[in-house]
Amino acid sequence: MDFVHSFGVLAIQHLQNNYKEYHDFLNLMSTVSDPRNMFSLYFPLWFHLSHDVGTKMIWVAVIGDWFNLIFKWSLFGERPYWWVHETQFYHNDTTPHLEQFHITCETGPGSPSGHAMGSSCIWYVMVTSALNFAQPSTISSTMCFQRFRLLRFCLWMCFWLIQISVCISRVYIATHFPHQVILGLFIGMLVAELFDHVPSVNNASLKAYLHMTAFLFSLAFWFYLLLRLLDIDPLWSVCKAKQWCANPAWIHLDTTPFAGLVRNLGALFGLGLAVNSDMFVQSCKGKNGNKIVFKLMCVTATLTFLQLYDFIKITTHSEVLFYVLSFCKSASTPLSVVAVIPFCVHLLIRDEERKLS
After folding, report:
1. Catalytic pick from 176, 197, 211, 252?
2. Is-catalytic flag, 85?
3. Residue 208 to residue 246: CA distance in whole angstroms
4. How confident is the model over 303-356, as pLDDT tens digits?
5. Are 336 and 305 in contact (CB under 8 A)?
6. Among candidates 76, 39, 34, 31, which has minimal Cα distance to 57?
7. What are the φ/ψ torsions at residue 135 (nearest 5 degrees)?
8. For this structure, is 48 an active site residue?
9. Considering 115, 179, 211, 252, which one is annotated as catalytic?
């Protein structure tokens, strides 16, 4: 792997030396592709456009990120920003210099890329869902089919442009090697494609959500214990990140493997509570559920709430407390988007209709 890694280092140096003027754009693409943004941006928009698509997005994101965790623990992928300091591939006087940024120092193993995998997962769902909405009927005119082909071409072009930009951005900031982002990209697409053949998630009961949450946590936990029994430290990468990160302030607890696990399981648990609640049934499944005004008000309110909610930072003084609070905060996000805020909007619209009648 040293040869592959050395080639990756050359690619990173080429990007950092020749494309510095695109620094802000590439940093933006890394930030936008953060799996955490799925819950605060893409999910609220799509859920109020289509409940099935929104639900599918959460499931794809959670299962995809869970597989990403298992792959990371299995593949022991290095990250460029620490590999160049520890490898014996270079002589001491020829160690290449890689510039680090405030989003470089992620603490989990490097392969496959979680950002590339999460981004391809979600955007694949969004593109295929949009095409399903626009799919013309068999009795449509030739012009309709031509417009659909043009739309399909444009959407897939946008998909690949975004994914390539995300992959380049992760390589540019020296947090991944090129082969790691490519692997993440295609695994993410595969996970999303597999979920096209699992329609039952849209009608899952609360019991099914609880069972799946417990199942995913148990598998990850037992896999962690297995690695420990084999005298392998699953958190080996955290020590390397702390040792070689240029600025200790750039190391964040929410980039550790367990942080992603509890965040995603919290979101799945919260979605299960929400879609099986009376508030969801009365609001989104009631007579106001299909009204454009109701949907627009829900989207506006949820996006505003989530942006403000993001300002609440979780304490990092205790790891256990941090993970518990992360789970609760993640669970409250879909609960707010799916049930609480739509129910409040429903009550507001109902009161206004009573005043007018």
Report:
1. 176
2. no
3. 45
4. 999 988 888 888 777 888 888 899 999 999 999 999 999 999 999 888 777 776
5. yes
6. 39
7. -55, 120
8. no
9. 115
